[in-house]
Amino acid sequence: MKPARNALISVTDKTGIVDFAAALVEQNIRIFSTGGTAKTLLGAGLPVTNIADLTEFPEIMDGRVKTLHPKVFGGILARREKDEHLREVESHEIPLFDFVIINLYRFAETVGEAGVSRAKALENIDIGGVTLIRAAAKNHKDVAIITVPDQYEHVLAELKNNAFELTATTKEKLAVAAFATSANYDAQIYKYLSETLNGTQDFAELYLQPYKKKDVLRYGENPHQKAAVYENTGGCFGGVLRARQLQGKALSYNNYMDGDAAWLIVRSFEKPAAAIIKHANPCGVATAASPAAAYRRALATDSISAFGGIVSLNRDVDAVTAVEISKIFTEVVIAPGFSQEARNILAGRKNLRLLELHDFYHLHEKDVEMRCITGGILIQDKDLPADETAGFEVVTKRQPDEKEWANLLFGWKIVRWVKSNAVIYVKDEQTFGIGAGQMSRVDSSRLAVEKAKIAGLALTGSTVASDAFFPFADGVEAAAKAGATAVIQPGGSIRDAEVIAAADQFEMTMVFTKKRHFRH
């Protein structure tokens, strides 16, 4: 194989490019470059040939057109094994490019800016760069295409250990990565334009949302299932993917699922709050004056199920809280921060993962939820916005008192994160009983009551939250017999009148939210 002789470099991200180009120059590889990249390399004292000198045509239209020329693409696409191609190269004095180092205009970052204009967004759509990438990747047998600074170190290491040649395998891998870069870039543009130009259309005809692999997991929900975690390339929208892991082994598939559920619950509270999650359902949730007290109260709901659970708190974990958490086996703790004393205490639990999430409340307003079904996916808006309490209606004769209102609103914040059918009992802003995932709402209510009994928690004076309407009066009757005095539910059943009458019969107060929160 002939030694590499020419390289084309045109990069937006200049990280590491001077050192990489210098290594090429040391091997007598001629550098061709454009605009800002050429200035950077020349400023570092490196010999550079401007593309305009090759094409004998200047950059025009504010740099929109500079590399789109046969003398550039002929040198990339020429097949070295074809004599006809080589004769044409020689005839037209076209240099053969062995390296193409390209990265693109920062489109995603640009459209992520607050108030960015459409004109600015469109101007940051790279044309020549994407075309160069695709051409070099197509002809990867002869051309090494390098698209991100992270590749420089590996490429240089192989070149130096292999007579300054790259293996066919490496070139193939670089080509695959290049096409991924191109696909990702086009998907970002499509997503932006479909959302801005088709503003009246809720969902685009073609759903494209690229994700980048963050990690390969040991296994999925079960050991026989392979799994990986991917991050939205448009910028992670918030949650555990943004967290910094302070200790413990790698997160599992189930850790990610449960961690997301735990974080979503506690981020909805302003007071110090704690949630303990198992299998995406809360074992217990509570607020209190301190994170330690909130954790103790959440644990009291179901300390048996909490074993091996995921804990999330919306306040920094201090030493007192750390001591409480360390008393039982816990898989993961998610919090905005951990004091050094807390970290020292929890360090003794070597398998415990600590996730520090500084931007605890950040979540993209346009976040969607996807569910896989055989042959496709379901997409919906994520059920995130807080309900406007101004639209709530008290439908019974008795109005809730101040304490009941506090508990009703507390329960309503939680019930949307419990698997349907969901019924939860609340007292003093602490879950006392949680019934989740039952086929019958009355069964969920019975399960919640049974959970409270097992935990030794009296339901006298409690309130009940239901994620959907009570279809029959029996659910309200069961709640009243358990000791509840107030109910919050969406309403909307054809038997609402019977349900309200049952509440009045037991002198309960009932609030209709007029909004359902199923969670499958």
The number of distinct β-strands equals: 21
CATH superfamily of the largest domain: Methylglyoxal synthase-like domain
Cα end-to-end separation: 59 Å
- By CATH, the topology of the largest domain is Rossmann fold
Q: Which spans of ≥5 residues are poorly predicted at pLDDT below 50?
A: none
Spatial order of strands in the largest sheet: 8-13-12-11-9-10
Number of domains: 3
Shape: elongated
Mean pLDDT: 91
Architecture of the largest domain, CATH level 2?
Answer: 3-Layer(aba) Sandwich
Radius of gyration, in Å, reads: 30 Å
Bin the strand percentage.
Answer: 15-25%
**Helix percentage range:** 25-40%
Number of helices: 18
Helix/strand/pairing class, anyone? alpha/beta
| CATH class call of the largest domain | Alpha Beta
Query: How can the largest sheet be summarized?
Result: 6 strands, mixed
Characterization of this structure:
The chain has 520 residues and is an alpha/beta fold. The protein has three domains: 6-196, Rossmann fold (3-Layer(aba) Sandwich), CATH 3.40.50.1380; 237-383, AICAR transformylase, duplication domain (Cytidine Deaminase, domain 2, 3-Layer(aba) Sandwich), CATH 3.40.140; 389-512, Cytidine Deaminase, domain 2. It is built from 18 helices and 21 strands. It has helices spanning 17-26, 35-43, 51-55, 70-77, 83-91, 107-111, 118-123, 128-138, 152-161, 168-196, 253-266, 291-301, 319-325, 340-346, 402-415, 441-455, 474-482, 496-505; strands at residues 6-10, 30-33, 49-50, 99-102, 144-146, 211-217, 227-232, 244-247, 273-278, 281-287, 309-313, 330-335, 353-356, 368-373, 376-381, 393-394, 423-426, 431-435, 462-466, 484-489, 509-512. The strands form five sheets. The protein has a six-stranded mixed sheet, sandwiched between helices. A six-stranded mixed sheet has the order 16-21-20-19-17-18, with helices on both faces. The protein has a five-stranded parallel sheet with strand order 3-2-1-4-5, sandwiched between helices. Helix 12 runs parallel beside helix 13 and helix 16 (441-455) runs parallel beside helix 17. The longest helix has 29 residues, at 168-196. It is elongated. The relative contact order is 0.06. The model has no long low-confidence stretch (mean pLDDT 91).
